[in-house]
Specification:
The protein is α/β, with parallel strands linked by helices. The chain is 40% helix and 15% strand. The longest helix has 22 residues.
């Protein structure tokens, strides 16, 4: 059978191991061809090809449910569930999503772009199944990196308390998440990778006991306890932990041995209780460059399949905001040993990898545990350290209570750097950093700021670290504007002080962060139509520069706000509240992201769809205020 002929995963039923291995080769070939052309997640999917085929041969996907954690691992799943011919459109506008998406396929049973959710969701499905009196199987596939997330451990704790609820958790253990995982659990799993496979002694013990005269089929409780004890002697050390938590442990299993995987999954389904199948895989399997560099090839832009090297951009790009942040923080850490960088499993993505390499003693990776990262930083700041917590905007959402309860209420000097703030592109709704202005603005004692360019980012970082209270600094994804930066000697900003970039009397434009550059372009378009804008770089959304904004708004009488975030409760709302609270009743036109989910596409495609390109904004302003001829 050809992979291109697969339209339903149940077509895998009855295929031999050699036939499945041939399909596995075709999946890798298609996977590599598409990602090398258009970019996307590479290593995770290559590592779970055999796991996916073996698991799906043991399931009836018209009824059974599979929940994939995050979705990085989901490309093979997509290729055997009817999306082979559309796979060239991966992560492109109106194309196949990079993550599982319930609206895309009936086989995408649960959508997720954030780690550690799969066991909770699959357990929820299993409980619903049992309450309805139905009989389908529920499986969660989770990576060992995602197992560092507290939510996954909470779900394991709950599932183990439900001994009569059949649930299979497949632990895809490749000793990686996006970067190598950290912590005691990771070390624990490392020990078991070289352990012998589990011997199913408990079954033989039970059979032997049944043959004892006068006992027969009914095993006394005392002997059941002996059976459990003997079983625990048969499992590796890490397996015993899961056994104590109420799971039956199977493993470790070679994640690229289809025959053994099929047999193990079939055995797991028969147990009718919580089961954890520990599968050891190789991230990037089948592509030597991805196997050798599992961090670098976790996700890739377009690259040459023969050499593994990225295809260079036709036009050189300025250094990314993340890298400028990382380099600046490194310099600050060299000068102040109390400053510590903290990340939640995203060293490279946030730019902290340079700190990790050069001053490891002032770098902490907590794993996929954003809540812990925030409260850890709070504790460190209580005793005199200056923590800088770098987390993507979309991931910091997971620690909202800790921001309030552990930092905001106590007014602790913790600096948060929110990377990927705003529209991020091909990752889609799960990763858009569109909510942080709204969710951070509501927390007392926080100072919120966003730079117009790389140089201002440096000044804001030193301002944050020097401030005796909590701060949040949002930076966009991708390249900066190419402005000159300094190696040291950055001048801190005055908290809450905005700046006037252009003088004008026809319209007042107040822009925040990444939208300042777009506002400048918009102002140029208006100027060509003899409309002169007064343009303010707000710098801060909390506190706002009341002394600058209110007199200008009162005089000009027409206000436009621009932000790369959701309009509900965002920067524009803050301006409206400021004017309303001071009885300045003038029209305010807010430009930003409306109450919609921003789907996967390039950032410019998304902005164009949302009407956030300079020419679109200029046209909106003219129509809103009836400006010009």
């Amino acid at each position: 059978m050809l992979l291109s002929e697969l339209s339903h995963p149940n077509q895998l039923h009855g295929l031999t191991v050699s036939q499945l291995e041939e399909i596995a080769c075709q999946i890798r070939e298609r996977h590599l061809q598409v990602v090398s052309t258009s970019g996307g997640h590479l290593g995770p999917g290559l590592g779970v090809v055999e796991l996916t085929l073996a698991l799906y041969q043991t399931l009836d996907l018209d009824f059974d449910k599979v929940v994939w954690d995050v979705g990085h691992q989901g490309y093979p799943h997509k290729l055997i569930t009817g999306r082979f011919s559309q796979f060239d459109s991966l992560r492109q506008q109106n194309g196949v999503a990079g993550y599982l998406k319930r609206s895309e396929s009936k086989f995408d049973h649960f959508g997720a772009g954030h780690a550690s959710t799969s066991i909770s969701a699959a357990l929820g499905m299993a409980i619903a199944r049992d309450r309805k009196g139905e009989n389908y199987k529920c499986v969660a596939v989770i990576g060992d990196g995602a197992l560092t997330g507290g939510m996954a451990l909470e779900a394991i704790n709950h599932a183990g308390h439900l001994p009569n609820t059949p649930l299979v958790v497949v632990l895809n253990d490749n000793d990686m998440s996006i970067s190598p995982p950290v912590g005691a659990l990771s070390s624990y799993l490392n020990k078991v990778r070289v352990s012998p496979p589990l011997q199913f002694l408990s079954d033989s013990v039970q059979e032997s006991v049944k043959n004892i005269p006068l006992i027969g089929k009914d095993i006394p409780e005392e002997l059941k306890n002996i059976k459990g004890s003997v079983r625990r002697l048969a499992v590796p050390k890490v397996g015993a932990v899961f056994e104590e938590l109420g799971f039956t442990y199977m493993g470790p299993i070679d994640g690229h041995d289809i025959g053994n995987l099929v047999n193990t999954f079939n055995a797991a389904h028969k147990l009718k209780k919580p089961v954890l199948v520990h599968v050891v895989t190789t991230k990037g399997k089948g592509y030597p460059y991805a196997e050798a560099d599992q961090v670098g090839y976790h996700a890739q832009s377009a690259f040459d399949l023969t050499t593994g090297k990225s295809i260079p951009s036709k036009k050189p790009k300025p250094v990314s905001y993340s890298k400028i942040f990382g380099q600046t923080l490194l310099k600050i850490c060299e000068q102040d040993s109390k400053v510590v960088g903290i990340t939640a499993a995203m060293a490279t993505g946030t730019g902290l990898d340079i700190l990790q390499k050069n001053i490891p003693d002032q770098y902490i990776d907590v794993g996929i545990a954003e809540q812990h990262a925030v409260t850890l930083a709070a504790g460190m700041s209580c005793d005199g350290l200056k923590p800088v917590v770098a987390i993507y905007s979309t991931f910091l959402q997971r620690a909202f209570d800790q921001l309030i309860h552990d930092v905001g209420i106590q007014k602790l000097p913790v600096s948060f750097v929110l990377d990927r703030a705003g529209i991020v592109g091909a990752d889609g709704p799960t990763h858009q950093g569109q909510y942080d202005i709204s969710y951070m603005r509501s927390i007392p004692n926080f100072v919120l700021m966003a730079p117009k360019d790389e140089s201002e980012l440096q000044r804001m970082l030193i301002t944050s670290i020097n401030h005796n209270g909590p701060t949040a600094l949002r930076i966009p994804r991708g390249s900066g504007l190419g402005v000159a930066v300094m190696d040291e000697g950055w001048e801190p900003l005055n908290i809450g002080e905005a700046e006037i970039l252009e003088e004008g009397e026809d319209i007042l434009i107040i822009a925040y962060g990444s939208m300042v550059a777009s506002a400048i372009e918009t102002s140029k378009i208006l100027k060509n139509m003899n409309i002169n804008a007064c343009l303010i770089n707000a710098r801060f959304v909390k506190p706002l520069d009341q002394n600058l904004i209110m007199p200008l708004a009162s005089r000009i009488q027409k206000v436009v706000t621009m932000e790369e975030g959701t309009l509900i409760g965002g920067f524009g709302s803050a301006i409206v509240e400021l004017l309303n609270d001071n009885d300045i009743n003038i029209p305010v036109f807010r430009i930003g992201i409306p109450d919609v989910l921003v789907d996967h596409a390039s950032p410019d495609q998304s902005k164009e769809k949302l009407g956030l390109m300079p020419d679109q904004m200029a046209d909106k302003i003219i129509k809103k205020f009836k400006l010009g001829n």
